[in-house]
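call fold(seq) -> tokens
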Amino acid sequence: MGGGVFYYIFSSAALIALALYHLISTTTAYLKSPHAYIAKPYYPFSSSHRFKYLQLYLLILCLLVAFAHQTLVSSDSDPLLKGSTPVHRFTSLQSAAVLFLFLILSLSLFISDSTSLLPLPSDLFFALASAVFFLQSSSSASSASVQTSDLQAKCDSVSAQISALAALLCLILACQPRMFVADVGLGGAVCLQGLWMLQTGLSLYVDAFIPDGCHKLLDVVSGVEGSTKCELEDSRLRAVAILDLVFVVHVMFVVLIVMVTYGVIAKSYGVRRLGGSYEALPTAASSVADSSSNHIQMKALTGTQA
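ret:
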């Protein structure tokens, strides 16, 4: 049980950190120059060469850990899954294959940005990311369809919907790279997926978060998939309703994160809303420059009149 919940916590922390970094970087780039803004799949962590690719290093490391975990899990037996152990093995391998595609995509992005061997344009990267997110959505939906655990099936189903949303947003960015709303939405979708991973781990493996009327099955060793089940129909419906409510709470939390992130960055850059657009507030230096320019123009005008 401990290994299961720790993996979900690890995945959640990695996704939330990636999403927050993307939200902050995207919002900063947009507020600096709204008219020249173009969505990017990667923002350097620092101007220093040593830390420039720190984000990609950590992302590749996390994907390697997740891929290794899914590959090892596929060798476990799960007699409670529909179709028994062979189905569990193939669904786990399918998840590992999707993670491997994300790993290849991250490596290609690193090679493209650090060398000239693979000049990968941003629109092509977003298109490939859309395809991989769609495969992840399909994998989660397939996993949900073979679960005997009602909670696991519900969690996988919601995860599939979030991945489908991320796939759609990546496709929009591939076609419209200047759409700031879609780029922020992509960061929000990744953040929501991270929060839902945490909720999945808590709902399946932590007794305090398992809804009333549901319990862990005692004949499953170490809390593998299918280990939490609701015996009565009323308990199952109640548990599903609770998860739906919790999902809405997570969505509200993500919206709050996006609003606070934008507000803090906008304030730090001195941005105010004028009509339907946003413009930077004048700084002291720009005010002095404008005053000097106006003074020179007035002197020129006086000389001309004289």
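The longest helix spans residues 233-268.
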